[in-house]
Amino acid sequence: MKVLIVGSGGREHAIAWKVSKSEKVDKIYCAPGNAGIAEVAECVNIGAMEFNKLVAFAKEKEIDLTIIGMDDPLVGGVVDEFEKEGLRVFGPRKNAAILEGSKAFSKDLMKKYNIPTAAYETFNSPEEAQKYLETSKYPIVLKADGLALGKGVLICNTKEEAMDGVKELMLDKKFGASGDTIVVEEFMTGREVSVLSFCDGKTIRIMTSAQDHKRAGDGDTGLNTGGMGTFSPSPFYTDEVDEFCKKYIYQATVDAMAAEGREFKGVIFFGLMLTAEGPKVLEYNARFGDPETQVVLPRMKNDIVEVFEACVDGTLDEIDLEFEDNAAVCVVLASDGYPVSYEKGFEIKGLEKFAGSDEYFVFHAGSKFDGDKIVTNGGRVLGVTAKGKDLVTARANAYAATEWIDFDNKYMRHDIGKAIDEA
Ligand code: AMP
Ligand code: GLY
After folding, report:
1. Quick one: which atom of ligand 1 is closest to the CA of 187?
2. Which stretches in the chain have pLDDT values below 70?
3. Number of helices (H) and strands (E), helices first, in the chain?
4. Tell me, what's the pLDDT at 147?
5. In the prediction, which pLDDT does 423 show?
6. Is 293 exposed, middle or buried, given 0-12, 13-18 or 19+ CB atoms closer than 10 A?
């Protein structure tokens, strides 16, 4: 088979690596890819939003299966464009990717189908939102309706912060049209867990749990980022939590989407909060998580291409997912200054130490070739993943492996997975 992967981050590198392990695959392309992905795939210079070019490429190369990694093209309807041309593609159509693309849609869906989530109100007018916030309980959470690079969520401790937040999202349009509508949500407390799943429109299969660390600094301080590290499994995701979510959240979401005429095929990422009242959905994403994928896929035993095909064909009920009985930790190596401003273009050394290992991985997020050197090319540069028999061992292994890599401006958190000490 020939496979095309769309995206250029650490998540797509992990997907490409896992696809390269499939017996069924002879050739992998990635658009646009990066310098790490180039080890397992041929990178093609087409952007993830260039739908016509992607479709033309898939036809020209007779691609058997295209896998969309990123949210923007999914929400923009790339899957519909592939299907129109009779091409096989893994990911939700536009009418289902709205599960991630609109927070107002996902909140209304959960309310209609009794899926546990925080109480909320939706506003299209800044005056009405501010009026509501006059008498609200604090802290409170404001969310831009649309995609905002994971940054459109404001936790407001006081009325003043909330008023400023409405201005930022709805009047100053910090996230553009994403803030035309906002969701104002009850503030919840508890552990967060990420659960990825495969769906074929009817059946859902849950992958192993993970947790990410979104803040830039140690001790969960500093700005929100795309994710500074992850661990899997989450010791807080107990059998009791799993049972609850299977009963009230996972299948209920797939069934709700089907009942709305929005059959969901692809990956649903459940962002859960384990509150005192039980697990609740914080958010849905319509794709693999980044950097959750970098700890989940190295532990997966299945041939992932078989699973992708079962989702496309509607035969996921015939598949059982299997994960290794171990743990994995991913530490993101970033450019110092991320997520605000940072320099790039520095040579990355030590990558060869990971070659061929099935215990240690270096997934590239922001790298590129500069002649025959590989240089930094983004805020998040690499994700160093290591496995171990348990979380403590995996964490020690991952941090040891971060020392193998060297580049100017290298920055990382030192407490990825530390929460597991409290479990
Ligand atoms: P989201 O993009 O919806 O996952 O939100 C980003 C982050 O904001 C989450 O991972 C939580 O840490 C936090 N968050 C979102 N909604 C809430 C809420 N209702 N209560 C408390 N924290 C929240
Ligand atoms: N790690 C969170 C996300 O992928 O949205």
Report:
1. 20
2. 150, 423
3. 13, 22
4. 87
5. 65
6. buried
Pocket probe mutation, ligand 1, options 153, 182, 185, max atoms within 8 Å of Cβ = 153
Instruction: For the chain, give the percent of residues with pLDDT over 70.
Output: 99
Q: Is the CB of 309 under 6 A from ligand 2?
A: no
Q: Beta strands 204-212 and 229-232: pairing type?
A: antiparallel
**Measured from the CB, is residue 377 less than 6 Å from ligand 2?**
no
Ligand 1 atom 12: residue of nearest CA: 192
Could you identify the atom of ligand 2 that is nearest to the CA of residue 288? Answer: 4
Q: How far apart are CA 415 and CA 178, in angstroms?
A: 33
For tokens 């920055």, the residue is 411
What's the 212 CA to ligand 1 centre distance in angstroms? 12
Does residue 362 contact residue 396 with C-beta atoms inside 8 Å?
no
**Cα of 11 to ligand 1 centre, how many Å?**
21
> From the CA of 284, which ligand is nearest?
1
Q: Determine the pLDDT at residue 224.
A: 85
pLDDT of residue 421: 73
Confidence (pTM)? 0.96
**Which of ligand 1's atoms lies nearest the C-alpha of 185?**
19
Rg (CA), the chain: 21
What are the helix (H) ranges across 246-345?
A: 251-259, 293-296, 304-313
Q: Is 318 helix (H, G, I), strand (E, B) or coil?
A: helix
Q: Which of 299, 411, 304, 286 is nearest to 359 (CA)?
A: 299
Which ligand is the nearest neighbour of the Cα of 153? 1
Confidence at residue 148, expressed as pLDDT on a 0 to 100 scale: 81
Q: Are 27 and 42 in contact (CB under 8 A)?
A: yes
